[in-house]
Please model this.
Amino acid sequence: MINPLDKTFPISIIVPTRPGWSQGFRRFLNSIFSKAKDPNNVQVVVKIDHDDPDTFDVYKEYRSHFNIVSIIMDGSMKYRGIPDYTNTLAWNSSGRILWWLSDEIRIETQDWDQILIKHTENWVDKNASFYVTLDGKPRCAYYPIVTRKLVSTIGRFTGHIAIDSYMDIVTGPLRQNRLAGEGLIPIDIHHDSAAGQIVAPKGVTKAEAIVQNVLVQKDEAMRKQHPFWMDMNEPEVKEIFHGTAKALLEDSK
Model:
């Protein structure tokens, strides 16, 4: 097995895991590698909380057989930390194409890696984004696929719908001649919700796990109300979005 940090992969999947969901994480990894035509096409870079030994045990189980890298981080920010988690994972990955996924996702399409490579091969050197189908809904913005070129150009991969937000809100007027891909890739994925299925990690009491799950659900509620996890009127957020548009415009010259 080649050290996953020592080569360039066609695809990097980046995923921030959640505590108490180790069996869900196992199902996530199994769907990725069992459905791939060639698992060596795929690098998985995961964020694991420093106090989540159950998830780390699953990671150790898979790392001897597949290209998987773990980054141990403080997960106390939960959903609010996803942009930071995601950017850290992205800059520690080495794929030409990056796909942000939740550990609740299951890939359902056989040979999905070959399909993804085929549909993106002409765009890897361009600012491009792509979509898949989530539970029958095409052009799913929640789990974007982007080129490394795009991440390098804008300087970040904030994760979840934030990349799509850049495309739709900031770069809309530039879209026709700015972004290359934007295609729907014929890959189907399924959302296996962790809500109600969180279990207590080792060393955590059931009561603590329940409190932790409630906090996660509150974060989910907040996310539904503010899907970008941030107030679009805040000066710092506006600066990020305008900076993204400027970077894309400069790169096109």
In short: Residues 166-179, 206-233 have pLDDT under 50 and may be disordered. The chain is about 40% helix and 20% strand. The chain has one domain: 9-194+224-252.
